[in-house]
Amino acid sequence: MKLIFEKSIKGRDGYSLPRDLFGDIKIEECLPEYTISKDKKLLSEISEVDVVRHFTKLSKLNYGLDDGFYPLGSCTMKYNPKINEKLASLSNFIYAHPLAPEETVQGCMEIIYDLNKLLCEITGMDEYTMAPAAGAHGELAGILIMRKYFIDRGDVRHKMLIPDSAHGTNPASAAMGGFRVVEVKSNEKGTVNLGELAKLMDEDTVGLMLTNPNTVGLYDEGIEEIEKIIHGKGGLLYYDGANLNASLGIIRPGDAGFDVVHLNLHKTFSTPHGGGGPGAGVIGVKKDLIPYLPTPNIAFNPDQKKYYLSDAGEKSIGMIRAFWSNFAVLLKTYAWILSMGPDGLYNTSETSIINANYVLAKLKKYYKPAYDRYCGHECTVTGREYKKYGVKTLDIAKRIMDYGMHPPTIYFPHFEPYAEETIMIEPPESESKEMLDKFIDIMIKISDEATTKPELLTTAPHNTPIRRTNDALAIKRAILTYDDELKLKDELKYQEKDIDF
Amino acid sequence: MRYIPTTEEQKKEMLKKIGVSSFEALIEGVPQNLRLKNKLNIPEAMSESELEDKIYRIAKKNADFYSMKPLIGAGSYRHFIPEAEKFLLQREEFWTCYTPYQPELSQGTLQSIFEYQSYISRLTKMEVIIPSIYDGASATAEAALMSLRLTHKNKIIVSNLLHPHYRETIKTYLTPHETEIIDLPYKNGLVDMDKLKILIEEDVASIIIQSPNFFGGIENMAKISEIVHSKSILLINVITESMSLGILKAPGEMGADIVAGNAQSFGMDLNYGGPYNAYLGTRKQYIRQIPGRIVGETVDVDGKRVFVMTLRAREQDIRREKATSNICTNHNLNVLAANIFLSLMGTEGLYQISLLNTKSAHYLENLLLQTGKFERVFDCPFYNEFLLKSKDDISSINKKLLENNFVPPLKICEFYQEKNLNNVLLFAVTEVLSRDNLNLVAKILSE
Amino acid sequence: MEERQQMSNKVIENLYYTKSDEWLKVEDDVGTIGITDYAQDQLGDIVYLEKVEKGKKLIQNEILTTIESVKAVSDVKTPLTGEVTESNVKVIEDASIINKDPYGKGWIAKTKIDNEDELKDLMSAQEYSEYRKE
User: What value of ipTM does the predicted structure carry?
Assistant: First the structure.
């Protein structure tokens, strides 16, 4: 589609300025010449009408959650309630400056404080910090908390245990936290190999980062043993809460012995994904780790009945962002929890687990599961048998798009021996049985096409606004801005039909 | 429950198809003694109208911020946001969609990010733009880490006039690296150039300077660049008020190697501190060390011009512990907000608003000086924020302003304990304050 | 997009092979190192190779360089202890050569061979072919 720059006409405007532009004041009286840009910085010149049309057209090139199912494993693409959006746009919230006097923002503080309490109850932890802006951000904070805890006790440790099935952010966060990553292999059942774990856990290891159910969707039955092994050598247990959707009302990480928990509010807690954020990755800890939480936190003075920003103290790891939290995201989370209540939360997990097992049961004849056992809220099958027809899992994913649906997660997780050519499917509780049946039908059709007409898959997609992209060329050309494109104009030689569709 | 379509009947059907008699069989692997025996102790589900009621009542415990004019910035700036932006943003194809890993279904997101990268590149005059880190503070910290990786050194110099939250965040991120962080003091409201000349040594990886700085002063980045680049040190330019780019010289023009900018002013609400968004900018030669998602242009099998996430091998899902950063989910919707905002503003609009902010800020400073109740603390050029020392007690001043429906300026002593900054306020002015508003402020404070 | 031949496990005789998919050609006391056809196929379109420092001294199995493709990253380990004598500039300029001709023009670096005994740790073409049979 045409870029906005290609629609720009000199002299057009899309903005509305106040009538009083302080023309009586000369800019030379305000700023010395060396600070001012010689030329106006060129953006684009488009009317409001054309801006609206441009972005409306762009939006139609996207597939959104309100269009249909996103079976993406580990992403928990659940329905984003519309009332929560309305509440998050109340003017007393959106215009609230973070440094406004505390007495003017008691409403914001109450929500943050209350949400903290709710999350503690839901996950069995003692206190949350609302600061982290995303799961990975929370992981970093959690890891820094663990690090400081050990240093404080004069017990400096250097290693972090991470299962081979872990999400990439886990080892990346551990490395950012200054730890050496030690990989723990999964056993033949797809869960943590306890023997391996016991061998690797020592007094130079901070602990284990675990997702439960794990990234292939399996509850780890060895959780009690894992807890003993890690705590046995004085380590800490970190819970990656990306898959909490399988545990609400069933089991709490705090009860299972986890010391640090991060939650992805844009996953389990229904806040919209926005094409890649914003979300929030709040961190919950057990009592002993509270002093290390980032600063400040929101506290409540019961005598004055007032909320206030409280310095977390000298043991705190410090700040991990400016201001206090992704408040708008917290508000939506709060609204969702209040809308669901305890029964709704349990129903969420029960339904999502039944959904995933239903899909697994119906698909396993056509796509070999990575592990043939009941799963949590997501299931992992593989596209391995179709390799002999020249069909890669990528091709299967691309063909799904031709049927009007977004493909599941592919090639993740990836660990030997069974989690290869993986297709990870997560049908959250907001997907109906009819939608699941539709998805299953599509997958079955494609499995048939893979054996009879594989070219349909290897050249897919056919029915989407654009088709398969040349990713290697993107890296080679390194066109990252419109000005980069202009520099290569002669080499590119686009025709009208290539850019105006 | 209206968000869960499956009926109890259907659940029974599905369990049958799975081949189990009850749900319990599916969660057999979850240890019995760890199971919750009782319902979670949280409030019972509220209806939509009850929820609305409750949140409205909580909202009332906040001030009526819409009608309150803010005299405070300090990293969070209220600007006028055109309604067209909010309208477009809420299209579900933008609002609810996933990260654009499948470009065939995400050209809307991807092209919009590319357009935004192009805008910010022109505004900052930096070649490579990462459109989204969570916020200015974490972006600055990522820039610091990037400079350590690029230079293989472990010492950085940080201006004392970098936003205090950003300074704290850098310290936190650098803790595991045990990086030596040297304070660069200020003189007369700007970075102390003499001290800078002394502090720069070959073992320094980078220098982090905010401009306009926390006190509002505009640093002479070209001069600083000359000094810094006399050694092999990277210059990191931080921007907390991106609207300033409308009129001020671009960091890239003045020698910045890395730019970390808070983009909140481009169409994002204050939202009590978040979510905002920040961009990183750098030179093409450093591209493999910059963290975060980036979008590039290519073609599809039919030759159409398309956009894809590119240079992914830097990211956590591929490089894991060797990744440039752990960042995964970023603040993409805010990137879109900023993109739509800049599209509506256009070349002229951004320039005019930026110019207006400068002029009206200087207008207010002048008015306040004329009351005789304030005096300048420093004598340096400023953009839209400035310090003033008050003759009256600043707590009572702020109280008066609050009573008159203004969000009061920042008491600088909350962050800086120097004696000469006692009883000093940091004022900010944007286009949301009219001349009448500013005249009223002066009137109130002259009494 | 370029078509690549459907040979995902081509193997050349008279070369040595490692478990981590590198090949080694020995001519007098110089070893030439590259990655196998299997490796380049697994990686997909290769886009970048980190520069190999001439004169760098490495011990067996230390990381020589890192190869980046569109969707993956892979370390290339040196099969033998020795000093890097030459690095192939052509693949730094155009990493896709490794995909097109992994055993020929796609060579990565040349190294001195400090200890011939280390050759015993490596596999023959036949052994590697068996090892990588899908």
Answer: 0.97
